[in-house]
Amino acid sequence: MLFLIVDDEAPIRALLKRLILQMGHAEVVEAADGGKGLDLFRARRPDCVLLDLEMPGVDGLAFLRQRKEVPGWERSAVLVVTGSSLSPAVERAILADADHLLRKPFPPEALAAAIRLALERRSSVPPPTGAP
């Protein structure tokens, strides 16, 4: 199972990576901005993305929109991890494109539960037409 962490803060990426590895998942790749995150998303097709919203350049909202240009995008779970205060309308918009929204700080158990639910949800998505 491949995880992609997209966050501009190195300490947050390190924390998320440590938590994911402690959950027993073996492979984690990281990107410090949304542009690099999209490149990795296209190249590696991760099973799960942990995505910050506020980043320089391509932010999390742009990432959510642009990932839909990648064939098979709907098979990758996305968890938005943010410390931002969001209006209910913005939260609804994010959740229309992502599987879960976690507010920093959060307990490790909340991350584990969100990952489990998101992966279960995405595993029920049928493969794209013409996929093996």
What is this structure's SSE topology?
Elements: E1 2-6, H1 10-22, E2 27-31, H2 34-44, E3 48-51, H3 60-66, E4 77-82, H4 88-97, E5 100-103, H5 108-123
Helix pairs in contact: 2-3
Rg computed from alpha carbons, rounded to a whole number of angstroms:
14 Å
Main beta sheet: 5 strands, parallel
Taking the alpha carbons of the first and last residues, their distance comes to: 18 Å
Proper CATH architecture? 3-Layer(aba) Sandwich
Query: What is the fold named in CATH at topology level?
Result: Rossmann fold
Number of DSSP strand runs: 5
Q: Please estimate the helix content.
A: 40-55%
Structural class: alpha/beta
Give the H and E element order: EHEHEHEHEH
Sheet-strand content, in percent, reads: 15-25%
Characterize the overall form.
globular
Number of domains: 1
Low-confidence stretches: none
Strand order of the largest sheet: 2-1-3-4-5
Task: Give the tags.
alpha/beta; Rossmann fold; 5-stranded parallel β-sheet; 5 strands; globular
Provide an overview of this structure.
This protein has 132 residues and is of the alpha/beta class. The chain has a single domain, classed as 3-Layer(aba) Sandwich (Rossmann fold). Helix content is 43%, strand content 18%. It contains five helices and five strands, in the order E-H-E-H-E-H-E-H-E-H. The protein has helices at 10-22, 34-44, 60-66, 88-97, 108-123, and strands spanning 2-6, 27-31, 48-51, 77-82, 100-103. A five-stranded parallel sheet has the order 2-1-3-4-5, sandwiched between helices. Helix 2 packs parallel to helix 3 (60-66). The two termini are 18 Å apart. 30% of the residues are buried. The mean pLDDT is 89.
